[in-house]
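Could you show me some protein's one-letter sequence and the numbers that encode its backbone in two labelled lines?

___
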Amino acid sequence: MIRTLSLGIPYDASTAVLLGALFLLGIFPGPELFRYDPDIAGGIFLAYLVDNVALLVLGLTLAPVFGAVLKLRETWLLRGVLLLSVKGTYSLQHSVFDMWVILVFRLIGYLMRRGGFSLAPVIIGLILGPVLENNLRRSLLISRDGLAIFVERSFSVTIPAIAGLLLACIIWTANSTGRK
């Protein structure tokens, strides 16, 4: 969490979801958060402190209840989670379309898991995608020269080149280990 707040970089799926929620609220984590909004940063750390104390108290008192829930069969537990997620989604906008969206994304997630794909990059991409799109649109509007803004400075060329080299190395390594 410290890395996410101080650098603005999520390091797993749960912090990516939290980072997306902060973006939606207009709070942009990073070094500027501590400089321009110290009250928000302090409030977040205070909330985590109170949360840890409350979690300790509730965890110690409700441990037998959680143990009883773990004794349920997994199929019943998953059905309960699915029921609560569908009910919660329907209660937001009273839309049957939202429940179909849940079904489609559940199927996509199932197929990805069967295929051996990690779901964390998809979640991070869904959260950070709109931010990337807004910044791309903003830079294209500022440049007025089209895509030339991305190749006119050495830094603008170096970072994508390094990313492309790393991607090529990953693909090459995966292919070479797959052949052995």
Q: What stands out?
A: The longest helix spans residues 38-70. Residues 107 and 169 are 31 Å apart (CA to CA). The mean pLDDT is 85. The two ends are 39 Å apart (CA to CA).
